[in-house]
Structure formats: structure tokens, C-alpha cells
């Protein structure tokens, strides 16, 4: 019944539908459940020619003719990738057909091992015998091209919302990629040289099966009246792949040591790490966050040991960067380049939360190779390191590790405790012995970490930690620096770090605090803190006003570059204007300078936003555009009697596969992405993350910045489809491994729509119920009485085929043009290759002698 109604549903409400047809369908459907084979009383059909019809596809409830069909697989509430599904004649009932669930399809279901071991098969092991899984139900629906599988939840591996078990992960297709982030600036200072600088970074890569090959690049070019400087370098060449069976990631080539115990450094070699991103989202770690205040429209560059990790333009005012990769660890160098030439630098510690592991599981990281400086190549002796974390019981974790080379040895051991309502706590001790050219140093370092989410108080200590190191203790990075520069470098004594969030919802107040303090045995301490207070309130008819204050201090002391310090305050009052606009006034004081400004920001649409600002002696503007091919940021500033500045930033990429290619916007360099094919139809809006992007001239678009190992959906934006296109399949879902180039096609029909009358060579018409398909085998219409049909997807000069009785019978040649009134004046089309002799209705009318299903 469902298949019958769904298949004929496209006719309802369209021109020339016979009223008797709908009544007849209701009569037919009333007896569907009464018997397996359905015969039709054609007297109820309002047809002039009662010998010219073909309803064979409706003659058996749920019956699908043996053959292979492209179908999406609906497993309970989850949707598996579209794939070819074969239907074979049942061995028990020759008049029935069964879907063939192949071993590959069963492997995508994520069955527990004990249930996979008891499966039985039929058709020489090609198809699953569903009786081996009691409670399993399988049915096909050709009207929606969907195979429905219902299975008790107890059979499945662990799963979580929007997360699939490894059996359903997709490695993607082979392909090439190029991602970039470039910034161009022109700064003209009065009575000084004109400075032009161009900087950028990105990734070039290739995918082959589960392997990801990547090369990271970065460059900078500066020109001024005094001279030019140019620098372009490859910062990393490496390859990696996921090992889902052990929830790990294997990396070969140039890499950074991502350790939860030891400092990070660059090396050439291999590493095998447990990959937390392969875990369900609620079991993963967290990524570091960088916050600060920009006094003008500024460029923020985040790097680590010389390698640029992140570069972006920010508008004047407070900023928080929260989309760094969660694999980053260790100290991050932050550089804020103001448009007036002022440069501020500081460091952020991306320390880990307390080291806890689920009961009964072991997480590990092992690596080996040779340290390598980005600019000087090899540095130091070959090394090896390993660390682990073992979930001893429900609440206790034991962790530790070691790292060694010829002259350095360090060993660490710690314990983590889940305090339940009181948060999570961990403590570890590390002892290191260092042999330098003139002395041997030995010392210990102790670390305490704490994390807690206070739900009842609506607050969170994201991370709080303390580390104390003895005077003769050298970390691995300090040892490498000492080896390179010929003397002890470092002398770290203690490190305090904390990040705190608190919401006072009843009062409309939020508090954010980030603090770090690094002290040394042999030089002054460095300190950095940022306190943000915000108050939200209403005043009369003005709603959602906010008053915020930022207090910050950066005091850095670098062994080689010397000391720098800045302390300041930023006070802002904001009130909404219009539908999405905001007017803000602010006052700030930093480096003994006071400034006042007013800003107006608004969104033009979902793709464009802007900000205009003015102060006592300057004006500036900032425009952000989310494009199909790239994200663009543009800023302009002018300060009285000082400087003028123009900046442009572009962030995007290109992806090329055997299926096609597309330019696209991109955020994460070399990250996971999905190529969507709209059946070659251009200008189709596809929505994934953020604003929808449209397919290019070849019918391809790429959705970038997809979360790895996380279920991803892409869909056609039906509200913004072009008038000459319609989507018969509008949604797809999949889970991609890290760095994969996914590929999915959505069935889109493009072309004009018109009524038509189809004639055969002998002047007769195709039977009622015959189907019309285009060259892509997409259904474009069902023949009504007297050969009338409502056709969609008409492409002038192309061909369509007409089928009945399960066979293609003849070919339509479409006209070179479709009249503007095609829905009123029917086209007359000749179907070549068939005649009345080819008509063989599968069903015959009932006679008075029939006794079964007579009332149908």
C-alpha cells in the first residue's frame, strides 16, 4: 500500500489527473492486506482503453522485482551511505523477493562481535539470513529509494548521538587538496616608509586509501623604502593514517611531540598515538583557547616553535580564538600585529586537563626519531619516548611515561582521580637526568591538575594547574635549547595556570578569567592574565544591552629577546539597533595611552557582516564575507597625522578527485571535507556547516571543516532551489576519518517542466502506468490515460526512455525548445521503437468467475 501510494503520489495535484484514478487507488489499497498477490478490478479506473494499462509494479504488496537498485539504508534511526542493493528471488517463495544484505553492508551495521560470529548466510554466502538475528526486519521502498532495516539495539556496538562505531567510518576517495590562508597589508605612515607585507600559510596534500600525505607551507614577504625581505618555507612533510582497530593514529615524517606529560618539540621520525578524536565526543579532550584585546583592526598569528598554526584578521576590541586543533599541546606563541605598526607578543600554555581514562582501557603514545629545528635541521641525538594511561577502576587512573636519548633521561609517574561531584584531580612527578658538555644535572618536577564543572552554580574551572621544578631539573625542550645554544637555558621554577567561567544568569552577569604565571630560578617571572566581566540588562524599550569590561596584563621575559610588559583596561557599552545591528562605545587604556571609540556592527545577510568604528583621532571599517570559494576579510583604517592602512585576508582551498573538483572555503588546513555531486547540475545550494554553498559549473561543491569521526549531514537547500531544478534525494549522511575526502551524490533533476502526450509509431499510446526516465535513469514522469504525462527535467534536444512491463520499450526525442506555456499546452512527443504489438499488460480485468480479491 505504501509503495503504491508513494509511487503515484507525484501525480496528485498535477494537471490532467483523472478524478476516478484517486478513488480507484483507495479501493485498491483497501484490500492490500488481504492477500499476497493483488489483482485489480479495472472497472473502477476511469479509462477509455481498458486493455492499455500496466500496473505490474503494484500487483504484490511490498514486492520489488529482482535486480540491483541504488538505495539509502535506514538502520533504525541512523542513515547509512547510499549503495547498490540487490534483490533476489526468495528460496522459500518463488513469487517473493528478498533484499541481499552483503557482508560489506552487514559490516557497516556495527554489530557486537558475539553476534557477528553467529550469523548465517544464503545464496552461497553472499546474503545474510535475517533469521540468524531474531527480531530483524528488512523492507525495501522504491518510492524513496530506501532500504529499511530494523534491529534490536542490544546487537550494536557502543554508539552515541551523531557518532558512529568504526565499522561505519568512511575513508573517502583518493584525491588532491590545496588549502591556503593569505593576508595582504598596505600601511602608509606619515614621514616614514610605506610598508607592504604579504603573509600566508597552508597545506598541500594527497589521499590514497587510508593514508594522508601532507606538506605544510608558510611564507612572508615585506617591502619598504629601506628594502625587501622574502621568505617561503615548507614547515612539515608528513604522512598519517588512522588505525581504527586500536583507536590510534600512525604518523611518519616531520612531526611535533604531542605529549600529555613532556614538553612538545619538533622531530623527524614516527609516532603511534591513541587518538581521542576516535572516541565519542563526550570522551574527548579539549582544545586550547587564546584570548586578548586588539587596539585596532589587527592580525593575530599563533605559532609554535616557528611553525604557524593559525593566522587571522580580527576587528578592534576583545577577541577569543577557540577553534584551534585539540592535538596542539605545549606553549603557543601569540603575535598581535596592530595596523599602526605596534606588535604585542605573549605565550599561552595549552596544558591538558587531568589525565583520566575509562575503566579497563589503556591510552598510549609512543614516538621515536631525531629532534629537528625548523630552520637548522637536525638537532640532537636520536630519542625514544612512550607514555600510557590505564583506567584502573571506576574513578582511578594510573599514568606515566619515559623519554630518553644518549644524554637525557626522564621518567614520570602519576595518578588521576575522578572526584565525582568535586571534579577531577591528577598528580604526577617527573625525574630527569641531563648530561651536558661540562656538567650533569639531576632534578625533579611535580604537577597538580584540577578540573570541575559546577552545574549547580553554572560555572566551570576549565583547567587549573600548578607545576614546581627543582633548580637542576631540565625539561626535554630546555635540554634541547641548552644543547643548541651551548649553555643552560630555562631554569623553570613554577607555573600556575587557570581558566574560570561563571554565569550569574539571574543577574545577567558572566565572568571569564584566564591566568598564568611562570617563574624561573635565574630570571624574573612572566605573568599574564585576562579578566572579562559582562552585564546584560534592559533599559526601557531597549532590550539586551550589555556592559563589559576587560582587564589584562602581559608581562613576558624571553631569554633571547628581552622583556616586554603591557597592562590595560577595555570598557564597552553595547546596545542593539535594528534586527541584527549593535552600537558599541568603548574606552581603553594601555601602555599609558587612553583611547575612546564607537563602533557599529551588523549583518547584511548570512554571508556578510561589517563593522564601522571611529575614535577621537581615527576611523576604520571591517567587512567579512563567507563565499562559496573562499572566506574574505577586508579592513581599512586611518589615524590622523599618523597612518593609513588596508588589509585583505582570504581563506580557502581546492579539492580534486577522479569524480571532479571544486574550489571552496576552508578553515582547518588539510582537514576533513565532503565533496557533494548534484548529478552534474550547477547552482544547487548545499547546506552543511554555516552558510550554504552552491555547486559549480560541473555540479560539484565541497563542504570543508567537517569533524572527523563525527556523523555529518549534507542536504539540498530546498527553499532556494532554482526554478528549473528539483531534488529527488536531498539529504545524505556519513562519518569520515581524519583528513578524508568524502564523496556523496544527491539526485537532482534539472530541466523544464511541461505536460506532454506520448504517441507510438502506430499512433497508439503507451499503457497507463508506464514510466519515463531521462538519460541518468531518473524518473521524470508516469504515463496517465491516453498517453498524457507530466514531465520534469526536460533538457531540449536530449532523450528520454519509456518503460513498461519491466523493460525499456521506446525512446523520446525532446524538442529543441519548450514553450513558455508548457504546463497548459501539451507537447506532442513520438516514442520511437515500440508499437501497439509491444503492449502486454501484466494484469487482466476480473471476471464474474473470479472468487479471490473480487472486491478489489
From TrEMBL:
Keyword Signal: yes
Membrane topology designation: Multi-pass membrane protein
Domain called PapC-like C-terminal: residue spans: 759-812
Signal sequence bounds: 1-34
Pfam family, one: Usher
Subcellular location: Cell outer membrane
Domain PapC N-terminal as annotated: residue spans: 39-183
Keyword Transport: yes
PROSITE patterns given in the database record: FIMBRIAL_USHER (PS01151)
Record keywords: Cell outer membrane, Fimbrium biogenesis, Membrane, Signal, Transmembrane, Transmembrane beta strand, Transport
InterPro entries xrefs: Fimb_usher (IPR000015), Fimbrial_membr_usher_CS (IPR018030), FimD_plug_dom (IPR042186), PapC-like_C (IPR025949), PapC-like_C_sf (IPR043142), PapC_N (IPR025885), PapC_N_sf (IPR037224)
Family to which the UniProt record says this protein belongs: Belongs to the fimbrial export usher family.
NCBIfam families: PRK15284.1
Protein name: Outer membrane usher protein
Organism the protein comes from: Pseudomonas weihenstephanensis
